[in-house]
Amino acid sequence: METSLAQDIEAVCDLALAQAKTTSRVIIGIAGPPAAGKSTLAEAVVRKLNADAATGGPTAALLPMDGYHLDNRILQAHGTLARKGAPHTFDSVGFCQAVQNLADQASDSFHPRFDRDLDLAIANAICIEAETPIVVVEGNYLLLKDDPWQSLRHVFATSVFIRPPMEVLTERLHQRWIDHGLDPQAALARATQNDLPNAQLVIEQSGPADLYLQQT
Question: Which of 26, 162, 181, 213 is the most exposed place for a label (fewest CB within 10 A)?
Answer without folding.
Answer: 181
